[in-house]
Protein 1
Amino acid sequence: MRSPELTPEMRRDLQVIRMRAYLDPKLHYGRESRKLPKHFQMGTVIGGATGYYRRLTRRQRATSLVDSVLGDTRTASYLRSRFTQAQQHKSQQARSAKHQLTNAGKRQQHKRFKQGKQ
């Protein structure tokens, strides 16, 4: 099998597949390699004739895997909530680090002031 030419769209699809464990908290996937695969194949899903009334309309069909993942409302809401949690955690850490720095500076100033009085 030859290695296909990596387009930006294929690269995004492969990254979504690689990070699929973060999309659904209730599913567990095995360990993934850190690098993108060199050899892979992309296919098209063709629906059968039995599920005529359960098939997706043209508006619901997505052109890529990234579009289908982001188009899912449950996944999008989960990702949004996780993003806000991460942002809040990051801002709390930044605030506490800033607070520690200002307190450390005040302590040093206080020590210098005490030493100057003696």
Note: The mean pLDDT is 79.
Protein 2
Amino acid sequence: MAKQLLFFFFFIVVLFHPVDVVTANIVTDTCWKISHGNSMLNNQFCVSLFNSVPSSHNTDMKGLTLISIQLTTQKAKQVLADIYRFLGSTQPKDPKIICLKSCQQSYLDAIGSLNDSVQMIETKDYIDAQMALSAAFDAGSDCERSFSESKISSLLSNDNDSYTRVAYIPLLIVADFFVE
């Protein structure tokens, strides 16, 4: 009788235990781990970013890393769109043109590095993926530096800050979960 009751209890737990609870926690667990003790990354920002992609709750760590790289690439493309908009509305002799073109190159390079990092993750080349993600991470600060060195108020401060916050996530995931 005790065995039957134990089996029945086990069956009920397995039957009604939502499988998604385990996979859904990958987002919250990952965001907590990479943001805990890190003043540069807000846990809630990380979770909400992944919540914008429903499949992030039904994946493994590699999948979550690739999703974060995809989100970073999308953000870089959004910044590039703003750069192109500013370039189109800026007079040819305006000193901001040089800064904007520098930023444009930084973000084009970042997208290349992000694309390379996807291939490196796929082939489990995590050290090189970390280096590529680190190079991509620098696009925002490199862009800001081009404005500050020219003593010009940045047109892209909000874009650069937003990009940097997103780009930090895949870099931290690779560093914390794949590189020893």
Note: The helical segments are 2-16, 20-35, 43-51, 61-89, 96-122, 126-137, 139-149, 157-178.
Protein 3
Amino acid sequence: MTRRLVPQDRINERKEFFRVTLDEIAEAVRNHHGEFELTRVAEAAEYRKSLALIEEERQKAPSAPPPQVRAVA
């Protein structure tokens, strides 16, 4: 199975993508700056607005007709 990276964030024009886990980031921060509090559930207002726009577009889009099936003799 091939996975594609599809930007869902249409509000944030920076389009930042990171290929590290939060745990890896936390470890690096602790190593350089000591203990800190990591918030794993952020507000993410821009991302949530993007999801709302995608859903709104999906609801407005006309649904495609079902494909026609032909019998082969």
Note: Residues 45-60 form the longest helix (16 residues).
